[in-house]
Design goal:
It is built from six helices and three strands, in the order E-H-H-H-H-E-E-H-H. It is mainly alpha-helical and 141 residues long. It has a three-stranded antiparallel β-sheet.
Length: 141
């Protein structure tokens, strides 16, 4: 969940740009309601087949308080706050996705490299055993 109150403050805290104002626009509430039953919005570990608004938008009081929402709602709200802020948010999301992808590729490459080296060693070992079994003085090395 992303703190929408902090987003609002970061863009200057203009009173008429609060989340409460944004959500009251018909298109925005429709956006939220339409996606309540979308399985892609389900939080990890959620066993329910239906989301409530409180599952994707919550309010917390006290220290670290504010209005928190699903990341897709946060990006839509960022667009409302300011075009520059929206661009910045999209760049942050893209960078995070690229970082995750590069970590996945590195992990896959390490696994693949290990498999390739392991397979090569097994082949080499079997070649050496065959040469030794035949009594060949010539090794594949």
């Amino acid at each position: 969940m992303i703190n929408l109150t902090n987003m609002w403050r970061a863009t200057g805290g203009v009173e008429h740009k609060r989340f409460k104002e944004w959500i009251e626009f018909k298109g925005n509430i429709d956006f939220v309601l339409k996606n309540l039953n979308d399985s892609k919005w389900m939080p990890k570990g959620c066993n329910s087949t239906h989301l409530e608004v409180s599952d994707i938008i919550t309010r917390k009081r006290g220290r670290y308080g504010g209005t928190y929402a699903h990341w897709q709602i946060a990006l839509a709200y960022a667009k409302y706050l300011s075009p520059e802020f929206h661009i910045w948010c999209n760049e942050v999301v893209r960078d995070r996705l690229n970082l995750r992808l590069s970590e996945v590729w590195k992990s896959l490459l390490k696994k693949r490299l290990y498999v390739d080296v392991s397979s090569s060693l097994k082949i080499l070992k079997s070649d050496l055993l065959v040469c030794n079994f035949k009594g060949d003085d010539q090794s594949p090395l």
